[in-house]
Task: structure prediction
Amino acid sequence: MIILAIESSCDETSVAILKNERNVLSHALVSQIDIFKSFGGVVPEMASRNHVPVITLLIEKAIKDANIEIKDIDVVAVTEGPGLIGSLLVGINAATAFAYAHNIPIIGVNHLAGHIYSANIVAPFKFPLIALLVSGGHTELIYMRDHMKFEIIGETLDDAVGEAYDKVAKMLGLGYPGGPLIDQKAILGKDTYKLPRPKLESQGLNFSFSGLKSSVANIVGKEKDNIHINNMCASFQAAVLDVIDFKLSKAFSLYDAKQLIVVGGVAANKGLRQMLQEKYHQKDIVIPPLNICTDNAVMIAAAGYYQWKYHNLINTYILGGQANLSL
Result:
């Protein structure tokens, strides 16, 4: 089975072609990160417009790089949500036009399911499993008993972890995106600021990062030019990792799981990867390579494959973007 997938939920335009579960035939991507660095974040209207001139070219490139013909494609998969509605619609319209013109079935794929299935590109899932999804817009713990069966057992009550990284980086004048910059500087610093660890024991497996972010803001406001940047980055990251460790440990005590998968843009964080290897080395841990941690069409193709195989969920050629689509 050959799947052509399109992802355009935010500021990456991506097209990939996948054969069966994990044979990536091609992957073409254009990122807008450099465009939005001067803005300190994504500007939704600009992001959607910037998808338009490149998406058709990426479809052509992906097909050429995969060394296949259009008639070889069995299904088109496209992100239908969640995400920025304007950006989603660009990808959906391109996918629908391509599929309709060539009489190919089309699947609308959940972006979060895509992130989860990026791990399946690395290794087969072993059920039951726990998935930790950490990104700029999401922080969730998901329990899976089988393919395409998602039970959200914990989520953020306020800021997503990646969002908190970006906001703290902005406070410290580091730039955008904040996650990689804080991660780099945290390695050079020490946990000297002793920031709070919002573990929310009464809230089960749910997360909260707004209080931690506010603590950083208060210190920055009081000490201003006297902030030791590397130490503050190390302190913030240590607090985040302690919270994630606490929630993961609790999740494994409550749920029988054979495997831990960690996905999303923040899964590229070196500090997080080191913590997981140190504390969960006895678990079967699967983390995707860096190039498919952030938004990409490979993950949409991977989720699309299992959506087709297990549920045969085929949409008509009338798809609509869903900005707040849940699992």
